[in-house]
Amino acid sequence: MVKYKIIAATGCATGIAHTYMAQEALEQAAAKRGFSIKVETHGQTGVENKLSSIDISTAEAVIVAADIDVDADRFAGKRVVIVPVARGIREPDKLIERALSQDTPIYKANQVTKTSSNTNVSQNTSESMITKIYTSLMNGVSHMLPLVVAGGVLVAISFFWGIYSADPKSSQYNHFAYMLNTIGSTTMNLMVPVLCAYIAEAISKRSGLIVGFATGMIAFNNGTGFLGAIVGGYLAGYIVKALQSLLKPLPEKEFRGLKAIFLYPVLGVFISGLIMWFISTPMKTINIGMMDFLKGMQNSDPLILGIIVGCMAASDFGGPINKAAYLTGTALLAQGNYYFMAGVSAACIAPPLATGFAVLMNPKAYSKNERSAGYVNFLLGSTHITEGAIPFAAKNPLLNIPAFMVGASIAAVLSYMSKIQVPAPHGGFIVLPLVNHPFLWVIYIVIGAIVSAALLAIIAGRQAKKHGGVIEAGGGMGMIIGENDDVEPVVKPNKQIQNEFTNEVKDDWNKILSEDNIFLNVSFKNQQEALRYLSEQAAKRGLTNSAENVFQKYVQREKEGSTGMENGIAIPHAQDSSVKKSSMLIAKLNKPVSWNTFDGKPVDLIISFLIPEQDNGAHLRYLSSTAKLLTHQDFIDQLRNSNSGKEIAALFNK
Hints:
Blueprint lengths: L5 E6 L5 H17 L3 E7 L2 E3 L4 H6 L2 E6 L12 E5 L1 H6 L1 H9 L24 H34 L16 H15 L1 H31 L3 H22 L5 H46 L4 H15 L3 H15 L4 H23 L6 H15 L7 H6 L1 H21 L20 H29 L27 H11 L1 H7 L5 E5 L4 H14 L6 H14 L8 E2 L2 E4 L6 E11 L9 E10 L5 H12 L3 H9 L3 H9 L1
Parallel strand pairs: 1-2, 1-4, 4-5, 6-9, 7-10, 8-10
Antiparallel strand pairs: 2-3, 9-10
Helix pairs in contact: 1-4, 1-21, 5-6, 5-7, 5-13, 7-8, 7-9, 8-9, 9-11, 10-11, 10-12, 10-15, 11-12, 12-13, 12-15, 12-16, 15-16, 19-20
Membrane topology: Multi-pass membrane protein
InterPro entries: Bacterial_PTS_Sugar_Transport (IPR050864), MFS_trans_sf (IPR036259), PTrfase/Anion_transptr (IPR016152), PTS_EIIA_type-2_dom (IPR002178), PTS_EIIB-like_sf (IPR036095), PTS_EIIB_2 (IPR013011), PTS_EIIB_2/3 (IPR003501), PTS_EIIC_2 (IPR013014)
Protein name: Phosphotransferase system fructose-specific component IIB
């Protein structure tokens, strides 16, 4: 049985290059010291080289270099260093030194790993706690997001038949619209229990999921909204963790089934549900008090009223505080007061629109799923569905919610100052024909949304920079592949490691790379020009039927996340139906061009891949193998010193 001195787990948002670069860097650093190491990777193809229970139990130390959840709790009882994947690539030597240090404390499940402050490798306690909370929250948001989008879009479409088309008592009633509205509303109602359940699941696994669903339903029925779901999720998760700790003395063999199907769910639901029940009751009293307060404010200063309404509408996005402002406006509509609802609607519409503008302003700071949600929110916001902003608010509530409040307040204040009147309680821009100053009202809402968007984009950019890249919601849920218990320890010289990686795809290099596809001493003004050149060269060589299609796929891939690596290297890739076969293009530049790279340096060496639409995942192997090779300085030196296409092709093929 092989015993490893160090074990590690790596994973990045896209699950391609950085995952394997961190793996390779750690293996090289361990090899230099003569240490055996096994690295588990969380890539797009799933979990590979999975760590077994024996690997974990016999290892001296653990390194987690990941931007996604890799289930660090299984390493409880070991010395563990947890850092972003970027540090796994940049500082592998320091990480190994830190992991083996006696100063590194023993990791406890669901607790912060406290590290001394005398090293820039470790993270402080508050950062680690925030990361843990963030990962759990994103697990809930990633499962909730499709429900918000699906339900919200269906509800929005139902308004096309009229604002009251889903009301059987209205003259606008349409049965199909009624069905759409009911299906959409029911779907959106699931978001509170789902958010709650999957926050709990990230904390205490399956038992937490069950208790979280029950707690979430209580939060929904008692009207505590998505804030109640977040509180309930952490409540359920940690109550189950506490029960697991308290019931640990019971013999595992005899009581395992009883604890899983009886003790944890029954006791967990009872305790968590009881607490949520008591939390909900005072919130109702507070809501009634807020409604009475707002009614008394309707004739006050429009500046003060707008700020109050804006902050309430953007505080919980359809939750009890938001509903207090909305229901007050609805009640005043019945009394013929159309003035109050104008500010409420503006404040409800601005936040989801802000998310759309934010992803347009700073697309690189958001994940692909977040950008898609932002675009959908243009539709949701335009029809007065504030809930579309929830995933963005939940990502960083302490900063993002105030950003939403600023824009919502601006929209509401401007609406009140201009005496705009909105006679309908819902519908968003669909009711513009009923508004006394429709164009002005839309302008005010857009102004508020853009202000919020600018703040959101700045916050997202700083967070992405802090974490070394965009963190995808719900990461680390890949397919688990079989264990690999018989792998020999990695105690090998760099050349041997390099040759092994080259041999992984030895035959493939011959098929995808030729001298004709290598371009030397070329010059470009910018990244776009370089990508355009590669596209055109691919078409000239018969590798694709459409240079434009390939170029657009290059650009689209860069928007999803930069392909810039480090040491002046980028590996852009395009997958399209116009590509005839898998191909590799290499360009060495006279002068570097600006590119969003891992180390902030411009790019003067481009290694590009063209992939057919159906390639059975082969391009992932090309990309990961190339990324591994590019962590070897001797390989990079040989590549840069090669002065002909023949030399470069031979370097990959040898």
